[in-house]
Structure formats: C-alpha cells, structure tokens
Amino acid sequence: xxxxxxxxxxxxxxxxxxxxxxxxxxxxxxxxxxxxxxxxxxxxxxxxxxxxxxxxxxxxxxxxxxxxxxxxxxxxxxxxxxxx
Length: 84
What we know:
Blueprint: H1 3-17, H2 20-29, H3 37-57, H4 60-82
Helix pairs in contact: 1-4, 2-4, 3-4
C-alpha cells in the first residue's frame, strides 16, 4: 500500500468513526428531536453518491469510508423519520 492510500484510509477512519457516537446515542435513547432531517437526508444522499463514485473509481478508501458511514447515517436518518 502506498502513502496516499494509507492517508486516505486514516482520513476515512476518522470521518467514519465520527458518526458512531451519534448513531449509538440515537439507537439507545430513540431521541432525534435535535437532529435536522434535511441535513441527514442530504448527507445520506451525498454518501450514497460518494460510494458510487468510489466504486467507479475503484478507490478502496472512498468505498470503505462511505460504505460504513452510509450504515451509520442511514440508521440515524431512519430513526429521525421513525421517531419524528
């Protein structure tokens, strides 16, 4: 693995893990009142598009980061809609 790929994987790990506390809190408390539905809908759409882009580019850091982040963001978005 070259330096650029490692850098991408470290960046992907940081930005992906950033969603974990919010997802855990939303799952545990079922409280999403303070979260913006529009922001999470737009964010989830963007993550899906980044994932598709990563697949077309065959870019492992983009695919991994957005695949995992999509799970977290989609959970939060689902809970936001469900408990609205």
